């Protein structure tokens, strides 16, 4: 996994670069990375586990946890834990009550090819969605107004116009 210091800092630099390039929030990129790693971790630790990943925003440390709910009589060990066991896990869990959430640390692991591909797909999907949302918000208030742009190309009779950060289509009809 990404355990070397250079890899961790590179992860943060990549998030920053993508955020600048796509004009979206860096926090959104990092949270989508967390979601992608969590999905990959689910394939490693089991689909019935609730996985939470935290990436330290300063040094790039990646921590993987399993979310567990404190209960009196746990029926499913993958999602429930006794209060005594939660306290053994971490002393800060002494204040927890029945029904509260506890995070159990999981060991870091090497992504397999398929898990890495899954994480990449989740990150790409979230970035595309954020980019679409940004574009929509940029132009929703410009509806029914005239914009200026540069004609880039013609495709099947449609005109593709560069509007700066995005392209628009003037349809043939």
CATH topology of the largest domain: N Utilization Substance Protein A, Chain:P, domain 4
The gyration radius over C-alpha positions equals 22 Å
Q: What's the N-to-C terminus distance?
A: 52 Å
* CATH architecture label name of the largest domain: 2-Layer Sandwich
Overall mean pLDDT stands at 83
Salient structural properties:
173 residues; alpha+beta; N Utilization Substance Protein A, Chain:P, domain 4; four-stranded mixed β-sheet; 4 helices; elongated
Walk me through this protein's architecture.
This protein is an alpha+beta fold and 173 residues long. The chain has two domains: 138 residues, NusA, N-terminal domain (N Utilization Substance Protein A, Chain:P, domain 4, 2-Layer Sandwich); 28 residues, no CATH class. 42% of the residues lie in helices and 21% in strands. Strands 1, 2, 3 and 4 form a four-stranded mixed beta sheet that branches. A hairpin with a 4-residue loop joins strand 6 and strand 7. Helix 2 packs antiparallel against helix 4. The mean pLDDT is 83.
Please outline the helices and strands:
Elements: H1 5-22, H2 26-45, E1 51-55, E2 62-70, E3 80-81, H3 83-89, E4 101-106, H4 113-139, E5 150-155, E6 158-162, E7 167-170
Parallel strand pairs: 2-3
Antiparallel strand pairs: 1-2, 2-4, 5-6, 6-7
Helix pairs in contact: 1-2, 2-4
């Amino acid at each position: 996994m990404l355990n070397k210091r250079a890899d961790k800092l590179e992860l943060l630099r990549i998030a920053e670069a993508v955020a600048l390039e796509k004009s979206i929030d860096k926090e959104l990129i990092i949270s989508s990375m967390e979601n992608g790693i969590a999905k990959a971790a689910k394939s490693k630790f089991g689909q019935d586990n609730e996985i939470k990943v935290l990436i330290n925003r300063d040094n790039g440390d990646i921590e993987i946890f399993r979310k567990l709910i404190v209960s009196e009589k746990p029926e499913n060990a993958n999602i429930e834990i006794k209060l005594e066991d939660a306290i053994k896990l971490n002393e800060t869990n002494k204040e927890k009550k029945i029904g509260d959430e506890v995070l159990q640390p999981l060991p870091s692991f090497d992504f397999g090819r398929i898990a890495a591909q899954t994480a990449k797909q989740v990150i790409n999907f979230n970035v595309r969605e954020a980019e679409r949302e940004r574009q929509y918000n940029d132009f929703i208030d410009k509806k029914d107004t005239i914009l200026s742009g540069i004609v880039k190309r013609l495709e099947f009779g449609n005109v593709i116009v560069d509007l700066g950060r995005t392209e628009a289509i003037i349809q043939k009809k």
